[in-house]
Amino acid sequence: VSALLAARAAGRSAARASGNAGARAAGLPGGLALEPWGPATASCIWRFNALYWQELAHWERATGRSYEQALPGGRSQARDTETVRELILGLFKTWDDLDARGALPAELYVIELGVGNGSQARTWLDELAALSRVHQRDYYRRLHYLMGDYSPAVLSRARQAVDSHADHVTTLVLDATHPTSSLGFLRGKAFLVYISNVYDNLPADEIARIGGRDYQVEVRAFLPAAGARRIGRRFGTAARELPGLAGKLLKLGPELLCDVLPAQFGRPERAVEFWREIWGAMRLAERYVPMAGLDDYQIGPGLTGELLRPLLESGGDIRMHVSNGALSSFAEALPLLHPFGQLQCHDLFVTRLPEYQHGFHGPGKYDGSVVNWVNGPLLRHAAGRGGYDVTIEPFAQHPPATVKTLTAAVRE
Fold it and tell me: Model-level pTM greater than 0.85?
């Protein structure tokens, strides 16, 4: 993962030295600002992230590779047939127990969020069908597999991959941060909510506690001066016009941008070149801004900054992700679970808060998208308050992998 950050705000020592005025903002390095200062969740980097998934076909044609080929090793670390089989056999045990008591619903719902190229769903459905035959169960016949993603292009590709299971599959374009907007009708019915490599791709703020005071990390995307001049020359425009052109790209997409500015771009491929040049050169500046109070900070719908207090007060100075999008998605997904269901998520998790004091955890660039490590202790704390138990463990089949497995279920 390549770093987006080109400049950290002056740092903890500067924040401590600022006295009653709070942490001073770091000066923007010489370059061209693409946006005003603001919380990371409001940054244009997330609009570029959305553009990547909405216009994925254009990006892949320009790079000559699929988005999965951009992953380490050319595939997701979370996809493994043996892991799928173990998960299904666990479900079979639950279903057998409920069936023995006459409590198994007639329809069995499984939800997958973040469907990738569909290989995970195909493996899952193939294995469930095969195991249903071996164990002489009618679970495959009763199965409803719902695939949700916020990229229509990705969802269309995944749907083709599971065409042989079409009678059991429903696809939904949905907002990953608010899954109940599309899936609310399944409240209390899903035996499995399966999520892979989604949470790390959702907007996240960062909060710091330094010397007993709380600060929000504000960011500002910019183009370094040399990069702005180079892009301006390549596309025949003054560097100062680049923020406006980037804004039009984000609003219109590459095809409509060509329609609006045919003399400058002419064809979508040229607009995609512009997009890739802007994205490649973009950096983030940061500054610490004192917070009035945690209760005034809105993490997401129904979630205030008070949720952060136990973590921030756990001891010493700390800077951590709020994982706003992931937390919102997680909080909405949990109520979809059947009382004997579980949520399983494979992703880049920070598992202990001290990890934030060492190393880089995002935001970073993953090809054309944004990635952040997810604040696992925060998700565990939020779920615990709602009556759910959460574990985060190494990915079973590949313990050294950077991907971890989060499992959540109703507390017994």
Answer: yes
